[in-house]
Amino acid sequence: MHADDPYSPDVAKMSAYCTYCPKLCRFSCPTAAAESRETVTPWAMMRLLELTADRSVALTPEVAEAFHHCTGCRRCQTFCRHTNDVPRALWQARERAAAADLIPAAYRPLREAFETQGRPRAAAITWRPAPGVFDADSPVGFWPDCDTLAHHPELIDRVGRLLERVLGQKVRLVAAGPDALPVCCGFPLGATGDRPGLDRHLARRWPDLEGLDTLYTDCPALSAWAEPTSSWPELAHDEPERLRPHHVIELLARRLPELPPEEPLDLSQLMVHPSCMMTRQARLHADVLRVLRAAGHGEPVAMIFDQEEAECCGGQATYRALEAEAAERQAARVAERLHTHPEATRLVSTAATCQCAMSQARPELDICTLLDLVCQAYRL
């Protein structure tokens, strides 16, 4: 690369490895599969990153847009001999492009929604927390996933009751939007490359956590940010360890084995879709299985590609904004695994984002989230 390379040394090394690789990870990339074009393969995007870094290719709007055809799923890393972290590299490329005012126009509604609502969608939400479920003075907080709030807000009350049962105390709903409802952790905004916008958003959010000793979330992205092994560890902004976000599944994996379910699940009829963020970024797949086994009997059905090899559904917010039709095709393709299985009758996704994407793509299939299923097992 060029002497004044704009990327970190690890990214420079990754791009060099990718450049001379014969595209061995191409089959693993959800955007390459959904769009059926070479321009958006991991190899091609990393090659463009290197060519723009050494100024062989100008950083134009068209070139900058190519860096956004990555969902951050990290599946290509699973099949890479060098374990290259392509999402990490491409997020840096997006920030460089954004600094040159080259953020795709398709993101304008999402960015405007963050400015007005603190969330990736501007649509009004009529749901309000049920009285008595949450305690505004509790030292334990619950920060819900944006897709849970947008599509299944009633689940927030149910998870609040589940946390009270498990912890023996009510939790505080982290709600600081202009409508007094939860806001987004900011991951979709960071995925646009707008780092200054993300920093402003987070600066407004941290005061909402004052008085908390513990913070739980069902958002895999928020949980992954706290992991030093994720693609974006620096986005944690070095908040105090006591405010490290823990995924609800981490807590349930420890506590549910001591709390027998009231309506045990028949796991043999369930096919589990491991979310990319939960599995390859937050590293929580083992906890997911512990929770399922505590809530039911039998063994769940594994997808044809499971755990580290699990397929990405393409549901990440910025990719849906950029390539809505391709994202839906990819979600439908992954959901189809349930339709073709001879025994499984229900698909359980470990993330709200994935459940929403696949349910919208294949509404005739029975697809739910893991937390919804657990709440059913405990009659909540």
TrEMBL record:
Residues 7-39 form the 4Fe-4S ferredoxin-type domain. Transmembrane segments: none annotated. Signal peptide: none annotated. One of its GO terms (molecular function) is 4 iron, 4 sulfur cluster binding. Keywords: 4Fe-4S, Iron, Iron-sulfur, Metal-binding, Repeat. Pfam families: CCG, Fer4_8. It comes from the Bacteria. This is 4Fe-4S ferredoxin-type domain-containing protein. The lineage of its organism: Bacteria, Deltaproteobacteria, Bradymonadales, Lujinxingiaceae, Lujinxingia.
